[in-house]
Prior knowledge:
Elements: E1 5-8, H1 12-23, E2 28-31, H2 36-40, E3 47-48, H3 50-58, H4 63-68, E4 70-72, E5 74-79, E6 82-87, H5 88-91, E7 97-99, H6 102-115, E8 120-121, E9 125-130, E10 138-143, E11 146-151, E12 154-157, E13 175-190, E14 200-202, E15 209-213, E16 219-225, H7 236-246, H8 249-254, E17 260-274, E18 277-278, E19 281-283, E20 289-290, H9 298-319, H10 323-350, H11 358-373, H12 375-386
Parallel strand pairs: 1-2, 1-12, 2-8, 5-14, 12-19
Antiparallel strand pairs: 3-7, 4-7, 5-6, 9-10, 10-11, 13-16, 13-17, 14-15, 15-16, 17-20, 18-19
Helix pairs in contact: 1-6, 1-9, 9-10, 11-12
Bound molecules: 8-demethyl-8-dimethylamino-flavin-adenine-dinucleotide and P-hydroxybenzoic acid.
P-hydroxybenzoic acid is lined by residues 45-47, 199, 212, 220, 293-294, 296.
Amino acid sequence: MATQVAIIGAGPAGLLLGQLLHAYGIDNIILERKDRDYVLARIRAGVLEQGTVGLLEEVGVAERLHREGLIHDGIELAFGGERHRIDMKKATRGKTVTIYGQTEVTRDLMDARDKAQLKIVYDAEDVSLHDFGSDRPRVRYAKDGVSHEIACDFIAGCDGFHGVSRQSVKADAIKVFERVYPFGWLGILSETPPVSPELIYANHERGFALCSMRSHTRSRYYVQCSLDDHVDQWSDDKFWDELKRRLDPEAVDHLVTGPSIEKSIAPLRSFVAEPMRFGRLFLAGDAAHIVPPTGAKGLNLAASDVHYLATALREFYGEKSSAGIDDYSRRALTRVWKAERFSWWMTSILHRFPDTDAFSARIQNAELNYLVSSNAATAALSENYVGLPY
Ligand code: RFL
Ligand code: PHB
């Protein structure tokens, strides 16, 4: 088998890259370790930046998003027993975010790929990357016990944090920057109307809480939890009780509870691998970097990476210029680090850390007060949240 670009991973990064390349006339094959339903069942992100929506429009998969997605002009910050609205649309002169689940983005991209009859191999086992230091890279995998090899011009490692792509690079060629946070997020999805029309990010002495949603009838809630906790220890009742303790009285009054349809614990991590290019292998999305979910940036960074990568490859094939691919890592990392900073900062002002003493709690409170009372601070938060320009 041969193709121009072999893409490892069918998460948002790999699927979006595949559609962008297809739109630019560049042939590609996607190899995915899991099956389609498994990938679709992963409940993750919910907030899309305008740039991400623009890319989905560019590849012609934004019709359902525009029909079903919810446009949000602002968020609420809850602290000291009160809620304060941040009008992001006003602060950014017109920018908004769209609430549309990662599962839906993935489904739309998979459907578009099927419709265009582009090759995607699910249940690809033992994927291995070869010779990406040369002009003739190859990818090997096994399917149903049979080995296959793909000869390609480039490999795109879009296989997430635990994928094989980053691990295929020699240790001395890669530099890693990391921060692991001493807590996790316990999240539930429920078939209940959201407590409030916009997202609520709450700083509380018992820990962070987030009220999010997927639609007018489906809610997504999170509470900061211990890394030692196990989902089995968290009955639905225990979850709702804990969430209520961390919300303001008005929110508690409006909260509609119900059985969870999904419940999981995610650890929080900041991670960047540099560079993002190794000869003819490019890393994109979670394969290259992780942010804590507090800033809602992970999926959006995957989208901006593949935008840079797809335009660079288009330049390579169309204009016979390697300027774009040579600059990919620098361009992507510049934006990645800004989102890393923002996500780290949002995490630091909203969570309880083991060493959060009375002094640091007052500092967090002062920072949140400043954020909601200064136009400059509100603008800085807002322009990062809605997404920095590409
Ligand atoms: P993914 O989605 O992990 O996809 C990688 C794919 O590669 C496959 N794979 C392999 N395939 C072949 N061979 C191998 N050896 C392979 N190893 C792995 C995997 O099966 C998988 O299908 O990475 P990608 O595409 O880079 O996308 C990144 C996003 O999924 C991630 O950044 C976001 O979900 C992060 N995130 C959020 N991002 C946002 O922008 N906004 C949010 O509101 C938001 N909320 C969140 C989040 C992540 C969360 N968790 C669970 C960490 C909320 C949470 C709770
Ligand atoms: C979500 O809806 O899952 C979500 C929203 C905002 C975040 C993180 C997760 O910051």
